[in-house]
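Entry 14. Ran structure prediction on the chain below.
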Amino acid sequence: MLIDDGATLYAYAITRDFGFAPNPFHGTCTLATCKPGIRKSAKIGDWVMGVGGSSLKNVKGKCICLMKISEIMTFQDYWDDERFSIKKPSRNGSRTQMLGDNIYHKKDKVFIQEDSHHSNPDGSPNQENLRRDTRTTENILISNCFFYFGDQAIP
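Output, C-alpha cells:
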C-alpha cells in the first residue's frame, strides 16, 4: 500500500508552479513556504499532494506533485543544514538556483527573508509572505520519496 494506515493525505491547489513551493530539486522535495496549516499539521509518514489550481489551465485538477514526508525541521535547522545549502536562492543563478526555498533564518530572534522568489522585486523582504510563512509554524516538510510531474501532471 502506498499510504500506510494512520497516515494522512493532505491536498492543496497549486496556483503557480515554478518549482518554488513545492521545491522538487536536488534529490529532495521540500515544502518550506506557503501552506502553513499543512506544514504545521503534517507528520513524518504523511503525504502531501499538490493539484493544479484553476489558474493552471493545462493541469487544472491534476496531480503536479506527491510527496511522502520523511523529515520535518525548523527554518533555522534547514538554513544551517549543509545538505540544504544548495536550496538557498541565488537570484543570479540558474532557474533552479533562483527558486531555492531555503529563505528564512533568524538573527537576534527575528526572521530574515533572503532575496528570493518570495521577496519584493527589489530584493527587500515581502512582509505579507514573511508573515504567512512564519507566523503559524516554523516547520519545513522534506521528502526523499516524491513524484513531481510539473506540466506533465497526471489525473
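DSSP finds four helices and nine strands in the chain. Will compare against last week's run tomorrow.
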